[in-house]
Fold each of these.
Amino acid sequence: MTLHNDPETYVLAYRRDNAEEYRRLDIQHEVIKHAILDGLLFHPSIRSVGAMNAIADLGCGTGAWLEDVASTYFADEGGKRDSSATLIGFDINPLGFTPTLAAGVQLVEHDCTKAFDSRYTGKFDVVNIRGLAFALPRTTFPRLIENAVQILRPGGYLQWLETEAQLWKAYPDTAGISKVLDAINLERRERDLTPNLPQFMLRQLLSLNPEGDTSPSLTREVMTITNFNLLPGGISREPRSQNTTLNQRFSETVLESMKLVLNSTVIRKMSQTPEESRFRESEMDHSGLTEIQKLIDFVENTRESGRIMMGGYFPQIIAQKLTGL
């Protein structure tokens, strides 16, 4: 997922033309699918996916989610295209687009915080959003959600899964991981990224309805939240199964993400002017480059040793766009 290439905002903007980043995104898709979503691409409440006409993925990255959708729901037993459905991914960074896509999948360069072309208005049965917490500042995040709702057809579903670092868990919990998470959350504040994702997600969708009204009418469309969950991921799903391959992959993926965020902190601080690099005394322990590098080394050693398993909880909202009958 990449949505915002401003280095002051998107934490991994420094990897936008890195082939390893796109490999990581593909692996991340598989880990999320199996270690958080129980192998599902759509929430169980979203039915008859194979009969849908159009599905969109915002911040699509390499297009891995859409390709999985195409092969799972819109191909025959031989893997050939078996539908005229439109499957479109939007992302601001075309460098990550998979060059050979499944039949019917399109990837379009677009900044999803900007209005979509009018041909997409009311077009999609499902709009999928996943993992924007480290990509968008709180000031522009609401615009993306408004744009997502605009391209949904009446009756269509918004499927939104997020990553909230404050809900990541380590087993066993250690002081080292706590320091890493403190540094990551400080970096989020420095970049003005959206805090407290579960609350933000709920507030944002409810705010789209006039004066909080959730009753559809003949002339008014509203977003009705049909499901809201904090989904356990990795070892948080089943603490007794800590040695499973799936949980190990999940843990490695989370730890790799933590290391990349810390790397972005180093890059940001090294690019600051002396005036910009003045820090409040209370933040000094996590702001010095030496301390950050120690945390990076700690995370890498932890990942390689496998002595700590990561889990966590991931907020997911399913909302339907409704009008009166």
Amino acid sequence: MGSCMSTEKQPRRAQITNISGPQHLMMYVPRPRVDYNGRAVRTEDHELDRQTLEAALTTMAEFIDRQRQNITIITVGGAVNTLLLQNRLSTHDVDFFGTNLNNDQRLLLDEAARYAERQSQTPLGGEWFNNQTMLWLPPNVHRKVTQEAFEQDEVVFERRGLKVVAAPWKYALCGKMNRLFRPDQARPYDVTDAASYLHYHILRHGGHISAARIKRWCQGYQKDTSDDVIRAVNEEYRRLYGRNGIAG
């Protein structure tokens, strides 16, 4: 912080709001790590509980704030379940994306995540904060999901310097359905996650959702689903919430 005696004009804090489109070549986070001989360094994953995640993101926010930046990112998956929905005890990473970001912000986020990793009393893992999801998002879908996430504004974490919002519930739902569509990729918790995301969408918008509408959502996000997957998600919804979430 500058001295209150200084008369020098302080730089304005930057707030990232542009969502018109990503830079042509988007930087991968984390940047590859190599040893002194230029060989890739292997990283380990760790299960991160809510307290560990909040502490790490707080350290990141403080780092970014010291650079006089405010950055908003979007996350999907385990971090949403662990921090916001609190229906999972832990996750192994925070997977972020957003066409509002440029490579200068991605670089700053990478530096902040590495700093948090060094400062953490609990091992985080070299890829605890990454943008792998971005690699699988076609540019038009990336822009669409960014816009919808900002409109939804479900805050997962927020401190001065860093705000994390959840991906649109309907996008998260379709992502889980896409994995359930492929039994070799599906994980035991995917159907429960899908039902939870559908529930939060319904809480915001009311009423149950038709199967046809869900198919249109998934088509718009370039995700696969099927009648069998939709039926399985509705059965899990009924088990969790005592009523149907999907009609038709």
